[in-house]
Design a protein that fits this description.
Elements: H1 2-15, H2 20-24, H3 38-56, H4 60-74, H5 77-89, H6 93-106, H7 111-125, H8 129-142, H9 147-159, H10 163-174, H11 184-193, H12 197-210, H13 215-227, H14 233-248, H15 253-265, H16 269-283, H17 287-299, H18 303-316, H19 323-337, H20 344-361, H21 368-381, H22 385-394, H23 402-418, H24 422-435, H25 440-455, H26 459-469, H27 475-494, H28 496-510, H29 514-527, H30 533-547, H31 551-564, H32 571-584, H33 589-602, H34 609-621
Helix pairs in contact: 1-11, 3-4, 4-5, 5-7, 6-7, 7-8, 7-9, 9-10, 10-11, 11-12, 12-13, 12-14, 14-15, 15-16, 16-17, 17-18, 17-19, 18-19, 20-21, 21-22, 21-23, 22-23, 23-24, 24-25, 25-26, 25-27, 26-27, 28-29, 28-30, 29-30, 30-31, 31-32, 32-33, 33-34
Length: 622
């Protein structure tokens, strides 16, 4: 692996070299006049193509003869270099050494230095390593004080895998005042191809210190190294180098910004936030970045980091441009974190706080999330359903955009359905579907309407809509539509009575009427037990047990689904939910990893594979 990676770095590095390499490939003027007749030019091209064909077909003896004659005729160093390459493939080391020495004695151009590198390469191929070191050190000592010569010789050394000697060239050149060039970028590339990532990073940072305009280029080089980090060594070296540099140069903004960028690549949001706050305290212009970082942390479930970022903005000033976003963001994160809280006093206090925030900031497109959270708490946590309905209805006519108005209508429809006012709900879902037809929220409204029809037993109507939604642009809606469609179609063919009871149980579960849902599920088990409905029944009982904090019971029920009904359409879902239960509530990391691995290995076509793979990787690394 390391050998392959090293070769990859060498290829990329050679592609990134300065234009001096191109200069190095320019032929010297011929030492004698060349016939420029058109026919002679055509003959040269024919001979070159033929030599290249022999070379590519590994007919090195024929290629060597042609390249040698081409060099005699035209004095292009490229032809001579290819001739030497052919001799090496033929293992004619003595001939190669003799011809190179002759060339070196008779040439005073920059090609002389390239030929000397080639001679060292011949020594290496001929197992004369003692000669290699002695010869290359002598070559480096004799180089003229010319930047182009240094670049060409170093590039030639690197092309022959003499990276350590190329670094000697760069080090020597960096100490020559007349060159006025420190070779940091070149050294970084050389170290990178040697897989010495510590030195590579160190030199990239020195280059940035020397030339800030190279910031984006250096960031892309560091990013490349991170992508091919096989053992974590690059990450560790880069982190230490960046931390050291930011401490050494606290007033240099670029290094702090580079550290933030690196921390985000590593999902180390704490370091990123600390750097952003430090920059804001110094320059007072980082609120946008801190707010953006809070959003990223929230999306990656790093809720404490998100809260710390929002708190910083809120405490800084109520007049700040991002103060409203921070207030809304903080409330959203705290609401997400409270999902497992079952304390009425907590939610009463939370609802009052949100009401105060709405009064302070006013209701607008920016603060609609506060209104939605407040209505959800009133409905589902405090059972103040009529207050929630009144709150939403009162704000449907205010000046907000079409999307936010649709969000309010969707929640209002959900509450009506929760309250058992089915026709009010379906009317609102239909309004959103019609007004936002091609938008994801329109697809969601259509799905919820189809789900409502399933709840009340209108299976054919529901199935017709779901079959269309299976091709929805939103992957989440498409997956949900697929799952519900399979449930209906499977059970509709097998047992309509069991399906009606299952739908009624699902409606009760939606309304959090768990006792009624359990009775309906038990009636299926008693009167309509069958291979199709049983896995659906068991997974619902597991979900009810989970909501009641009966974790061991939920665990055993999930296992019955994927162990007893492994061919069921929901066996993969049972595996995923059991893995999450084991990890989050039973603190059994090993068992959770087994569930994730089983899902990945045995249900390769599952829509949950990507989620399971990410979770498995996260648990393995922690």
């Amino acid at each position: 692996m390391k050998k392959t990676l090293r070769l990859l770095f060498i290829v990329i590095a050679l592609m990134s070299m300065s234009s001096s390499l191109l200069l190095a490939q320019e032929p010297v003027l011929p030492k004698r006049a060349v016939n420029k007749d058109q026919s002679a030019q055509s003959q040269r091209q024919i001979d070159e193509q033929l030599a290249r064909s022999f070379y590519n077909n590994k007919e090195y003896d024929k290629a060597a003869e042609l390249y040698q004659q081409l060099y005699i005729n035209y004095r292009y160093y490229y032809h001579f270099s290819q001739y030497i390459e052919c001799l090496l493939f033929l293992e004619r080391y003595d001939d190669a050494e003799k011809d190179l020495k002759s060339f070196i004695r008779n040439d005073n151009s920059t090609n002389k230095w390239k030929a000397q590198v080639n001679l060292a390469y011949v020594y290496q191929k001929n197992s004369s390593s003692d000669k290699v070191e002695k010869y290359l050190k002598k070559l480096i000592n004799e180089l003229p004080e010319d930047k182009n010569v240094y670049l060409q010789v170093a590039n030639m050394l690197r092309s022959k895998d003499f990276d350590e000697y190329a670094i000697m060239v760069y080090d020597k050149g960096a100490n020559i005042p007349s060159m006025n060039h420190k070779f940091f970028m070149e050294k970084a590339l050389a170290y990178q191809s040697m897989l010495n990532f510590e030195k590579a990073t160190e030199n990239y940072l020195l280059q940035l210190e020397t030339d800030p305009d190279d910031y984006e280029l250096i960031k892309s080089r560091l990013s490349f190294m991170l992508r091919y980090d096989v053992d974590g060594s690059v990450v560790d070296d880069m982190r230490m180098a960046l931390l050291k540099k930011t401490q050494e140069r606290p007033d240099d903004v670029l290094f702090s910004e580079l550290l933030v960028w690196f921390a985000l690549q590593m999902k180390d949001y704490e370091i990123a936030l600390n750097q952003e706050i430090a920059l804001d305290r110094r320059f007072n212009d980082r609120e946008y970045d801190i707010n953006y970082l809070a959003i990223i942390a929230r999306d990656n479930e790093q809720y404490d980091i998100a809260l710390a970022a929002y708190d910083y903005i809120i405490k800084k000033s109520k007049e700040g441009a991002f103060y409203p976003e921070a207030v809304v963001g903080k409330t959203e994160v705290e609401y997400i974190k409270s999902s497992d809280v079952d304390d009425k006093d907590f939610y009463e206090s939370f609802e009052q706080r949100i009401m105060n925030e709405c009064n302070e900031l006013g209701i607008s497109d920016k603060t609609i999330p506060l209104l939605i959270i407040r209505a959800e708490i009133l409905t589902f946590k405090l059972n103040e359903i009529e207050t929630a309905i009144e709150l939403l209805n009162d704000n449907l006519d205010i000046n907000i955009n079409r999307y936010n108005k649709s969000k309010l209508k969707m929640l209002l429809a959900d509450i009506y359905l929760y309250k058992d006012e089915v026709w009010e709900a379906t009317l609102l879902y239909s309004q959103v579907d019609k007004s936002m037809k091609e938008e994801p929220i329109g697809h969601e409204a259509r799905f919820k309407n189809a789900q409502l029809r399933y709840f009340i037993g209108e299976f054919d109507w529901s199935l017709a809509v779901l079959n269309i939604l299976k091709s929805a642009t939103s992957k989440l809606i498409a997956n949900d539509a697929m799952s519900l469609s399979l449930l209906i179609s499977d059970n509709l063919e097998y047992d309509t009575i069991a399906l009606q009871r299952l739908a009624k149980a699902d409606f009760y579960m939606y309304q959090k009427k768990y006792e009624l849902a359990e009775k309906m599920l038990d009636s299926i088990n008693i009167y309509n037990p069958n291979e199709v409905s049983m896995p659906y029944l068991l997974i619902r009982k597991a979900q009810i047990a989970l909501d009641r904090d009966e974790y061991q019971l939920a665990d055993s029920l999930y296992k019955r689904v994927y162990q007893g009904y492994s061919d069921s359409y929901i066996a993969d879902k049972a595996l995923l939910e059991n893995a999450i239960l084991l990890e989050k509530y039973l603190n059994n990391k090993e068992a959770a990893m087994e569930c994730y691995a089983k899902l990945i290995d045995e249900y390769t076509a599952s829509v949950y594979v990507a989620q399971a793979r990410n979770a498995y990787r996260r648990l393995r690394e922690n």
